[in-house]
Amino acid sequence: MKIVGLLFFCVLAFAEDTKSDEKQSELIVELPLLGKVSGSIIKSRLNKDILSFRGVRYGEPPTGQQRFKQAIPVKPWTGIFNASEEGPSCPRPDRKFQSEDCLRLNVYTTKLASSSDSSSTLRPVIVFFHPGGFYGVSGQSIYFGPQYLLDEEVVLVTVNYRLASLGFLSTGDSLAPGNLGLKDQVEALRWVQKNINNFGGDPNCVTIMGYSAGGWSVTLHMVSPMSKGLFHRAIAMSGAVTYQNLLPTDQKDLAKKQAEILGCPTDTTGNMLICLNAKTEKEIADTFSQFFERHGDPIFVWLPVVEPEVRDVERFLPAQPIDLIREGKFHKVPLIIGITKEEFGGAVVGPVEAARKGDTTEFDFVNANWTTIAPISFLYERNTAKSLEISAELKRFYLHDKPIGLDNYEGWAHLYADGVIGFSAHRFAKLVSDQYKTTKIPIYYYEFTYQGRSSHATWSDGKPYGVVHHDDLLYLFYVSFFPYFDAEAPEIKAVKRSTAMWVNFAKTGEPIPKDRDEFKNITWTPFTKENKAYLEIGNELIMKSGLNEDRMNEWEKIFPLPNLNRPKKNLK
């Protein structure tokens, strides 16, 4: 059995290289506002030259007294900034090549701007925010190589942002209001607006795209006042902020736990931060895994928060996203949003294979502790009468009121798929579509069902469990832990199709290229609450209606929308 990344490689060793015939060259770009930067050349799948600039700083290193503060825009440099090699990732547990000097981004392009270029010759830009539960992964090319996407006419930017307590510590007061990792992303988008034209990218045609935690990020930028005017389209893949809980207004308990693990005082925020600032990045990063309660659960530990109003501090999130959307207070841009067929359902592979060999330890433990474990795994309130009711109802609906076993584990897998990812995407699409009724702004909803030979969750014989979380990324990016799809690979059709649709959307706001024979007679009907339309992206492209409708109706029944007029905490 192999599960390579339902948390997207957070348990993998660092890979040292990517698939490329990389050439060093005198590839230098001058950024008028910053200085000169040198890059290297990578070959695309179709042997195009990709001009690669990796590890470019967009923010000053958030070290010392800046550790728990909003990023400072990068200052101009003298000489030539070397971006021909990979930059460091933000601190994570047990990783090589990381540093707090991690506010870096990678830019990939096939044509630099020239003095004769007009705005009409600039190419659309995709800015990608990586997955990893807000505590892992990075924008490095070992995870997200450009070799597939850059066969299309696009400029790709992948972004690092601070993670876990270094990016999301929040005490709900003026000293640690929270959301630093998301504010890092804003700073990266501001950098793109000022500098991307020098790489042949159009700052007036920017699509933000993210996966899992990156999908949460995309949907949060859609409601954040800080992100206004920084993007023009959005792609939220397998992640949206509209899950079954409201976001917290602080994470004091987690902040205190972080301090206590490192032997720091917790009597005041000030004393706690003074002590945490004195710790090394490694000391802090090595504690991240201690925040899980069991087997990588909960999926999200450090969450975005609704921030207090603090003088002279930008506020990324002033209210609950679910309220801001219903009040129409969000950035109304064309949107692609969707899920994979099995999503986090691959989490059941290990326990199922063990049970088939006679070891039912995991089944037995989960069954005996269902009312404790289910709220942790499926992200709803804990230790309340309501929590007990929810746990019982989910067991009734998904498991037919029976213990988990070999005869009903698929229901457990569906519960993972819906509780961690599916319901939040469904709810976001419905809420946004309500607000788009009076506009012609489209929402394109999808389910990715194409099954290739590789997957992030496989049985012990190497066969994929299904199309799980992150599997669709294999056809947009070269992920160095998986095979490189050459011209003879059966997956090439999926690569060509995925990259063409996503780039056409970035260029035009519509995903189906009308000028390509392979998309002849294909229509992707925009989603509305009434038509429930979605595109199944499988061996063929097929329009359908009502994605997992019975299951989503169940979640809507259990987790109704909160009253807009409910009393709200005063965060001023």
Tally of helical runs: 14
Shape: globular
Main β-sheet description: 13 strands, mixed
Ranges where pLDDT stays below 50 over 5 or more residues in a row are: 4-20
The number of distinct β-strands equals 15
Which radius of gyration do the C-alpha atoms yield? 23 Å
Strand content: 15-25%
Task: Please state the average pLDDT score.
Answer: 93
SSE layout:
Blueprint: E1 2-3, E2 23-31, E3 35-43, E4 49-57, E5 80-82, E6 104-109, E7 123-129, E8 155-159, H1 164-168, H2 180-195, E9 201-211, H3 213-221, E10 233-237, H4 252-261, H5 269-278, H6 281-285, H7 321-326, E11 335-340, H8 349-356, H9 361-368, H10 370-378, H11 385-399, H12 409-435, E12 443-448, E13 457-458, H13 492-508, E14 533-537, E15 541-545, H14 549-558
Parallel strand pairs: 3-5, 7-8, 7-9, 9-10, 10-11, 11-12, 12-14
Antiparallel strand pairs: 1-13, 2-3, 3-4, 4-6, 6-8, 14-15
Helix pairs in contact: 10-11, 12-14
Task: Explain this structure.
Residues 27-555 form the Carboxylesterase type B domain. Residues 1-15 form the signal peptide. Pfam families: COesterase (PF00135). Its EC number is 3.1.1.-. By secondary structure, the chain is of the alpha/beta class. Helix content is 27%, strand content 16%. The chain is built from 14 helices and 15 strands. The protein has helices at 164-168, 180-195, 213-221, 252-261, 269-278, 281-285, 321-326, 349-356, 361-368, 370-378, 385-399, 409-435, 492-508, 549-558; strands at residues 2-3, 23-31, 35-43, 49-57, 80-82, 104-109, 123-129, 155-159, 201-211, 233-237, 335-340, 443-448, 457-458, 533-537, 541-545. The strands form 2 sheets. Strands 2, 3, 4, 5, 6, 7, 8, 9, 10, 11, 12, 14 and 15 form a 13-stranded mixed sheet that branches. It is globular and about 70 Å long.
